[in-house]
Specification:
Layout (H helix, E strand, L loop, with lengths): L1 H12 L5 H41 L7
Length: 66
């Protein structure tokens, strides 16, 4: 994403594409980046929750309430 945004900026700066078109494309790239970041965080959280449940089962203790 970072490389795509940099490339987009250079094209706008060089006058190869209009600023408004560049803004639209940048918005799409930002949206994709946000979706990827959210998915990665959800995956990490799921892994942490799985590890916590495993530890709870191994130690025979009550799980933390959410």
């Amino acid at each position: 994403m970072r490389l795509e945004l940099s490339y987009l900026y250079r094209r706008i700066d060089a006058g190869e594409i209009e600023s408004s078109e560049g803004s639209r494309r940048a918005y799409v790239l930002k949206t994709i980046a946000d979706i990827i970041a959210t998915a990665e965080l959800e995956q990490r959280l799921s892994e942490i929750e799985d590890r916590q449940q495993t530890l709870v089962r191994q130690q025979n203790v009550l799980p933390l309430k959410h």
